[in-house]
Amino acid sequence: MDLGLSGKSALVCAASRGLGRGCAEALAEAGVNLILNARGADDLEATAQTIRDTYVVQVTCVAGDIATAEGRKAVLDAAGSVDILVNNAGGPPPGHWSDWNRDDFIAALDANMLAPIAMMQAVLPGMIDRGWGRIVNITSGSVKAPIPQLGLSNSARTGLTGFVAGTSRQVAEHGVTINNLLPGIHATDRADSLDGNVAKANDITLEQARAQRQATIPARRYGTAAEFGATCAFLCSDKAGFIVGQNILLDGGAVNATL
Ligand code: NAD
């Protein structure tokens, strides 16, 4: 399927590894020029070079923390006007509801709610003027079904989801869509780290922890960054212009619900 994206530009945040990288690679495959961001410059440049070597697209790197105003300014200055924005950042640490103080909540809100909102506010005027734009926010399956030990994530991402629900309906008439992709467990460094927490908490091996978590998924495996990226590229395509303000769960059936 031709996604109709050749020659367009995308800013993909937190994209040196994992799901952000999967989105970047799928967009590159569709002919989209990329501005990539992540915190570590070396990893980011290595990812960019792999993409340049594989696809015929331009890739610009801007290292920096997207949760900070300085990081966002650097990325936005380098990006200029973009057709596509993929919002992403690392997830907050797990814990117990009684652990977290105001500073912990502010840090989670900054990274997983206020940063993506600020990025949307920055790129939306240009997209609206040009009459075309696509925004995809990487959130979490925890928006549909809470993950108790990820209370900071549950809170921040639900706030972002509320903002997108209203805003997507305000910008759709200008040819701009905003949607959220909700990952269940995917085989990335983040999943490895959460597997490690389960192993430690239950005094079992990493492999046993992974097997336990895979058993909770009807597909009996973790998702891949490539599968996730392909869905992102479709949402960004000219075929997906009627998909507005949706929360699309990619979780191998893990959330047990009819709708
Ligand atoms: P990952 O740890 O594999 O990769 C994270 C990437 O984000 C890296 O490139 C890192 O450099 C970059 N990054 C992190 N914080 C950043 C920041 N503040 N500014 C700029 N770059 C930053 O993570 P992942 O598994 O790809 O997860 C991506 C998002 O999806 C996270 O928010 C995570 O919580 C969420 N999520 C992941 C899963 C999963 O199973 N992998 C499930 C649900 C939700």
The profile of the biggest β sheet is: 7 strands, parallel
Provide the residue-averaged pLDDT: 97
What structural class results from the helix and strand content?
alpha/beta
Helix tally equals 8
Distance, first to last CA: 28 Å
Q: What's the arrangement of strands in the largest beta sheet?
A: 3-2-1-4-5-6-7
- As a whole number of angstroms, the C-alpha radius of gyration is 18 Å
Q: What share of the residues lie within helices?
A: 40-55%
Give the low-pLDDT segments: none
**Topology pattern, helix = H, strand = E:** EHEHEHEHEHEHHHE
Key terms:
single chain; 259 residues; alpha/beta; seven-stranded parallel sheet; 14% strand; binds nicotinamide-adenine-dinucleotide
General description of the model:
The protein has eight helices and seven strands; from the N terminus they run βαβαβαβαβαβαααβ. The chain is of the alpha/beta class and 259 residues long. A seven-stranded parallel β-sheet has the order 3-2-1-4-5-6-7, sandwiched between helices. α5 links the parallel β5 (133-138) and β6. The longest helix is centred in the middle third of the chain and has 29 residues, at 102-130. The radius of gyration is 18 Å and the shape is globular. Residues 14-20, 37-40, 65-67, 88-91, 111, 138, 140-141, 183, 185-186, 188-191 line the site of nicotinamide-adenine-dinucleotide.
